[in-house]
Each structure stands twice: as structure tokens, then as C-alpha cells.
Amino acid sequence: MSIDLSRMPKLGFGLMRLPEKDGEVDLDRVKDMVDRYMKTEIRYFDTAYVYHGGKSEVAAREALVKRYPRESYMLATKLPAWEMKQAGDMDKIFNEQCERAGVDYFDFYLLHSIEEGPNYEKYEEYGAFEWGLKKKEEGKIRHFGFSFHGSPELLTKLLDDHPETEFVQIQLNYLDRTNPVVRSESLYQILLKRNIPIIIMEPVRGGMLANMAPEIEAKFKAERPESSVASWALRYVGSLPGVMTILSGMSTEEQVDDNIKTFTDFEPVTDDEMRLINEVTDEVLASKQIGCTACKYCTPGCPVKISIPDVFRAANTLRRYPDDWRAKNFYKGVAERGGKAGDCVACGQCERVCPQHLPIISLLKEASEQLDLET
Asked: What is the pTM of this model?
């Protein structure tokens, strides 16, 4: 079944950053958020086996699958290479996902986080692409593709080796266009030239492009007073040809409402607005912020329970505002609930799973020197 780009929802609901209460997904709030989103015609939900410690797919079942007709929405999930020890684990994980989500099939199914190294090698060794095609033949998967964090060279090889790929999910936002690690623009151009539908993740870079320095926010507000700062990032990627769906990891009801507003009667970015986006990009890149998107892939395996994204959030605030007492108080709470930055044992598990390829060990050391004296 081919994908009709013109009929795909531009805004996808990412189930990776759901609101929590007492350490658990807050299902009452998630249900409310799903209801707001389902009132529109944009009904694409994205989850994964590992999101929220395995509870995201369950949240999808409770907030969506049990409450709406199956044909009224599209549901996507992903197969994680790092959870597999043998080829038989693909079926084991898939069956568990169907049970968790309460569905007989997934509309979109992805090999999760392909890049150079163990993930890619394991997918190839276990025949994951061939397995995906078999699942399509069985009617268990409607569309099959992968999410990608690797090099342009590997992406080209994958598309040459696996022409059965129907779509690819990449990280793309206006800040990462020239990022030498993410290489968003190069990946985007490869997919565009091959006419492969593109799903965008991290359009707001984990919230970084929604909460910016006051002087930058003022520039956006001067141009579009009624629009949120986040809407600029979403409109940027929404204006690009070849983009099938844009995932937003929504955490609050307000984010749902604002994103729906952005994509209702969507307005592409103008030339003048693009010049402002380029100006803002240059200014943000000059501020030397830690490029963490708060995906939290790094946190489950941390042996000393450091909430790494929260540490970096505090460190980033202090890099821009050295005397900000709120960032220091925020970090104090983070350190009380888990490990401090200085507790890092340099095991490296976080760096092995980081999609941004951040030097987390050295960044935690720097953050400790900056923050631990305050706690």
C-alpha cells in the first residue's frame, strides 16, 4: 500500500514526553490531550517499545485504542535493536507490543534508531528488513520504515540495499541544519531526491526551540505577536517539500492546543521570516548550549540514577545566565531525587545510546564543576 502524502496528517502526536504523576504516566491528562487532538483531522500517534520505560504503548492503549475506533487513527511504534539478543526476539517484542497497545496491527512500524555500529549491524544480522516485509504480508504492519541517526553515507547504503523502505524518520529542525553530527540537511536532501516520504522528529529540539532567551523570543513576537515561539520551529519543517508528518512530543494540554492552532490553516514560512530564522540560528549556535533533546534514552541504564537531561537543562541555563538562582534550585531538586552530576562513574552506557552523540561523561564533569558546589 503506497503512502499518499496529500492525505497524511502534518502533525503527529509523539508519545515520548507524556505528563507524569508520582513517577507514572498521568493517564487522565493524556486522555484529555488525546481527546483534544482527535477532534481534528490529524490523527497520527507515535510511540516505541522503550518510551516511558515501556509504558508509552500501554498509555496508547488506555488513552486511545480502548476509546476510539481502530480505523479512526494511525499508530506507529518501533523495534529496538538494543533489546534483542537473538533473531527470535523480533517476534517476541512485536507480540508484546501488540498486547501492550491492544492492537492487531500497526499502521507504521520502524526499526528504531539506525546508525553506524551495533544497532545497524544487529538489524542486518537478524534480517530485520526481511522480517518487516513478512509482517506486512501477514497484515500485522501497514507501512514499514526506520528512524535514522547515522551518516549520509549509511543512509544511502540502506536505501540502496533495502528499496522496500517506504518512509524514513529523521531529526530535523532549523538549528540542526548544519550540525556536523546530526547532518539534517544532508539526510533530508538524500530522501527528497529519492522521493521517500519523510517523518520529522525533534522539530522543536526537545523543547529548546520553544523556550528561548527573552531577547530571541522578543524577535519572534515582534514579527508574529499572536504566535508561539514553538510555532516558528514547526512552521519551518512544515514548509519543506517531501515532509509527510511532523512529530511533536507533547507534554501538556497547552502544547496540544498550540500545535493544533499552528497546523490549522497552516501558513508556510515567508522569505522575510526565513531571514529571521537564520538570524536566530546564528545567535543560538553562538551561545554554546549543550545539544540535549531530553529524549531520556540515557537515563534507564545509568547505574547511579543521574537524570542527565535535567542536569544539562540546568547547565544550559547557567551557561546563558550565570547568576540564575532558579536553575540552581532546580538542580538541587534533581540531585536530591537521583544522582548528582559528580556521581558519574564514566561507564559510558549513556554515550552509547545518545542519538545526539554527545560526550556526556565530559559534559557531566563540567556540569559538576559548575553545579555541585551549589548543592
From this structure: 0.84
